[in-house]
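Inputs:
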Amino acid sequence: MSVMKHEELVELLQEGRIGHLQFVMNGENAQDYLDWCRSHGTDPSDDSAEFFIEQTEIDAMERQLIDDEEYGLWL
Amino acid sequence: MKRKSENTDGILEQFAKMKERHPDALLLFRIGDTYQSFKQDAVKASTILDIETRDKKLDGKEVRSVEFPHHALDTYLPKLVRAGMRVAICEQLEKPQKIEKEKSQSQSNTNEADMPRKKKEQATQEEPVKSVKADKPAEERKTEVKTGESQEAKAERKPREPQMVTVNGDKVTHGHAYQSKTNPEDWYFTAKINGEQLKPQKMDPADLAAYQKKEMTVPQLMERYYPTKLMQRAPDVAFQVANVVPGPDQRPLSVDKFNVYKEKDEQRPDFGRYKFYAEVDGQKMSTVASRQDLNAYFDRVQTPGQLVEKNFGERLHLPSHYQQFRLPEGVEASAVRIAKDRSDNKWKVSADLGEHGRTDKKEISFDDGFALFKTKTATREQIAAKYLGEDIRTMLNGPAMNMERSQSMKM
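Outputs:
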């Protein structure tokens, strides 16, 4: 599956045009998710994809802050 | 606030140059205490930010412009980015001594609650981050935009030394605290494990203060906010084959399926909560999962079997569930009474603590009654400890009933 832009996927998910599984599988974390499923002995599903997103998803704006090593307290 | 002087000489020329180099970016110029945008960018910004444009005299010409206070950048920049704009921020160059002064000011504020926000200008969308060099005298007043070069220079930096290594051999780096842009009163802790960004965790203000004072280290914050990332992972095989848990009469119960899902039924009180679903020995069951257990499952530090014992132990009448409950020392089994309450026909447990009085009666669940009377995997003491443990401890630590009462009743 081709990787789609995150913002595009978020919009599709919010509009209910795709489910969580499709959201993950079309995003850049698809392989991580599949690895997670494999390591947990579970098949990819909408439920596990939703949980995976909940555990790993970082808001785009927050990501910009996190990635900026000159922003925040780095002690 | 004192408004800094607005020297706009040559600003249009700079705008034209920057636009030529970055035609697809919306340019924001830092001028004095404001950020300003011009011409077509001003119109776009005005629409997105819902602020009015005005005609401003620049270099002798009337130019359409918008401006907002510099401290509003946190509010407006995300809006521009969310609207799909690529934003380049052009800082006004200042005299070296002034920069030095501001730098030392910024450093001295490092441990203050309103944290230093260095290089906010770098918060742009996807494209290589753009900011402005401020290393030339003001007289030159040339605005430059860093291009990919700075990114490459960054990439060439030595790999960061891990701040800690977990028992699994995972390397923790980039542990730090940062302030939320959307809710500035909130601070988050985050780090990377083997280069993977962890989901930020909201910090307790006390932890933030301790971290600012260097009384709390990154490993300690990792322990606090990502405990399951640091724990020993269960072996792969535990997730590949059906787990077995010891059931009543030592009969092994097979965990045929175990997964997690979010409750979608709006009619249920646990709507929207994450739940564990398990199929054990032919029985299907689900229960709301705690955050701790969800993390343990996600990070594979507990096996499905262990999570079944913990979350469905009562439902399955497992001996291991009841073994965790113990009465405080000194309370005998004979003190426990489990009987059907005649008033409502429900099974209840209570304990006679002698001079410390008798506890309230508490109703026991069907499964606990089943474990006590049918499968006999629970004892009276365990049932009492499960329901009354806290009450008993409180009462034993309180005054004895036959001691002289306080004189509070005396008039």
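Remarks. DSSP finds 14 helices and 17 strands in chain B. The longest strand of chain B covers residues 252-262.
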